Amino acid sequence: AQKVTQAQTEISVVEKEDVTLDCVYETRDTTYYLFWYKQPPSGELVFLIRRNSFDEQNEISGRYSWNFQKSTSSFNFTITASQVVDSAVYFCALSGLIIQGAQKLVFGQGTRLTINP
Amino acid sequence: KAGVTQTPRYLIKTRGQQVTLSCSPISGHRSVSWYQQTPGQGLQFLFEYFSETQRNKGNFPGRFSGRQFSNSRSEMNVSTLELGDSALYLCASSLEGAKNIQYFGAGTRLSVL
Known about the structure:
The complex is a heterodimer.
Chain A: E1 3-5, E2 10-14, E3 19-21, E4 24-26, E5 32-39, E6 46-52, E7 59-61, E8 64-69, E9 74-79, E10 88-96, E11 106-107, E12 111-116
Parallel strand pairs in A: 2-12
Antiparallel strand pairs in A: 1-4, 3-9, 5-6, 5-10, 7-8, 8-9, 10-11, 10-12
Chain B: E1 5-7, E2 10-13, E3 19-24, E4 31-38, E5 42-50, E6 53-57, E7 64-68, E8 74-78, E9 87-94, E10 103-104, E11 108-112
Parallel strand pairs in B: 2-11
Antiparallel strand pairs in B: 1-3, 3-8, 4-5, 4-9, 5-6, 7-8, 9-10, 9-11
């Protein structure tokens, strides 16, 4: 079975601090995909990044960076110089290969991030 | 390009009633998935439709059903509503395949009284 664990339920930091959101996953698939989504108060899940299991290169997009380590089954997300607009719930998710190309995302419980001015 | 559209945004129902939620995917997307989000259980997969066929189903009772039309629009139905069905129901659309990104709508918030 697939499982995603986000151990940090809530994080609160002061603006401009760096913050790292942890994500640990479990899967028996050799090919799988990892995602991060952001959920602002409006409720819509906003896609941030996708990583496949064969690409362990870290990725940076502006103030956002992701660290994927297969050895520890982790896919952590760092926000540098946090801003109040980064306040949201962040979800890590896993998708494995299912027959016929079917889609199914397994989500972690989410981390509520609050950036205080 | 328009995003995923879910209607209605809010619904209030009473126990025992049934409800139908609607989802219009991004143009060109033929896969539509539904998820339930509750404070206790988090985000849980309900089912996925592709080309009017249900391809994958989560662990929900038979009261939860869905369908997809030839234009890829999808509806989700919950019969005999229970208090525990109160949740945010999210619809996502994507191109076919597990590698593809699922894009989500704003959701329908269902309250069962």
